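Retry 2 of 3 after timeout on previous attempt. Resubmitting structure tokens to design endpoint.
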């Protein structure tokens, strides 16, 4: 299963929520790169696409947990669990997001 969007519709530092099957994904452009992580914070039910991006980190707006967008790692409490990270492929203006193969 994949979902697609346009690179030109993404703005650095402005997360966008997309749906992949029954999952919500938070897509973030950081300059020429695009990252995709689970949209729901691993701490509670907050949407990370409403959070703040700085560099390659996203901060949850609810209690301030920060996550690494590249690895999904929880960097700052109160979150301790990593976020699911999705595979992003970019071909020109086309960005495709899919689940990672394990
Ligand atoms: S819900 Fe994200 S830090 Fe609490």
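Retry 2 succeeded. Sequence:
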């Amino acid at each position: 299963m994949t979902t697609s969007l346009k690179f030109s519709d993404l703005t650095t530092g402005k997360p966008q929520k997309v749906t992949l099957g029954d999952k919500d994904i938070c897509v973030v452009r950081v300059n020429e790169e695009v990252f995709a992580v689970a949209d729901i914070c691993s701490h509670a039910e907050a949407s990370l696409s409403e959070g703040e991006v700085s560099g390659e980190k996203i901060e949850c707006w609810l209690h301030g947990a920060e996550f690494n967008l590249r690895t999904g790692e929880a960097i700052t409490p109160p979150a301790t669990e990593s976020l699911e990270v999705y595979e992003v492929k970019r071909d020109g203006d086309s960005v495709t997001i899919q689940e990672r193969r394990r």
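Attempt log closed. The chain has no helices and ten strands.
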